């Protein structure tokens, strides 16, 4: 269903139309509710808008590419959904003939790690839309890019292999997610599935190339290439990462069990001192390569990637956003 409004008496100011990409399923209804508030505001102010609902998984890419290719002046494209929908929209823009097209974003997911990562202060969707409309210049924010055989994707948060990716897999396939989301406990949903993953996730071999150096791990367990600190709905896997420093961070945690794991995890939850632990290795670079030697689950911005022997080259890129940032 496409909603289209052109209200009589619309002030033909600089903004002629707002194109909204909506994932009405995101955040178990949070995105839909945010969209309703936003469109009510737009109507009250006689602004022209159109809502483009995603009709199936992955649809955000197609919609964003199409809207960017229309290249209309005076139009602002705004995504309302979670990190997965934002990821798709960024990839759609990058695949279009106008990859410099800016995107507005109103978070409505369950995790919303991107907004946490860029320290977005405005929480109210209507105030955020007002801010987006008032902005004259878009802001450039880092996004990661991963290239591999048959793989070319941009990501706004992170790409993970192993532990966190298995957690995404189990979370997406659990009935508890929906239930906990209803209670607005998306992070808890992720957390409870960690226990399942601790039981099932094996250690795996991993090679990392950075600069002229190579590092080998016999027993990698958590592997995250990240644009900012957060994954899994607010866990700061690398508190030193920043989406404004034109670098990507890579964190590798070796397989540990029992109390060693509990201690490390509590450091991660409390003060970020896990990065100094002897079982954790991390780098901050403009590019690096990863190769895991057995099939493992992967995740990109919370979206499942099929199980793979990943061979990925990471670089840093950027995307223009209609978002109020004070970094
Ligand atoms: N109409 C649809 N039917 C089925 N799946 C959809 C539909 N529209 C979008 N999706 C899928 O929903 C998934 C989740 O989207 P999204 O990440 O935006 O929300 P979320 O998981 O609630 O948020 P977050 O990632 O911030 O926790 C994405 O994989 C997207 O492709």
UniProtKB/TrEMBL annotation:
GO molecular function: ATP binding; kinase activity; metal ion binding
Cross-referenced Gene3D superfamilies: 2.60.200.40, Probable inorganic polyphosphate/atp-NAD kinase, domain 1
Swiss-Prot/TrEMBL keywords: ATP-binding, Kinase, Lipid biosynthesis, Lipid metabolism, Magnesium, Metal-binding, Nucleotide-binding, Phospholipid biosynthesis, Phospholipid metabolism, Transferase
InterPro entries associated with the record: ATP-NAD_kinase_N, Diacylglycerol/lipid_kinase, Diacylglycerol_kinase_cat_dom, Lipid_Phosphate_FormReg, NAD/diacylglycerol_kinase_sf, YegS/DAGK_C
Domain DAGKc, first and last residues per copy: 13-150
Transmembrane parts of this sequence: none
Cofactor(s) this protein cannot do without: Mg(2+)
Magnesium found in the keyword field: yes
SMART domains: DAGKc
UniProt keyword Zinc-finger present: no
Gene Ontology CC entries for this record: plasma membrane
GO BP annotation list: phospholipid biosynthetic process
Record-linked NCBIfam families: YegS/Rv2252/BmrU family lipid kinase
PANTHER family: LIPID KINASE YEGS (PTHR12358:SF106), SPHINGOSINE KINASE (PTHR12358)
Protein family: Belongs to the diacylglycerol/lipid kinase family.
Protein name, entry field: DAGKc domain-containing protein
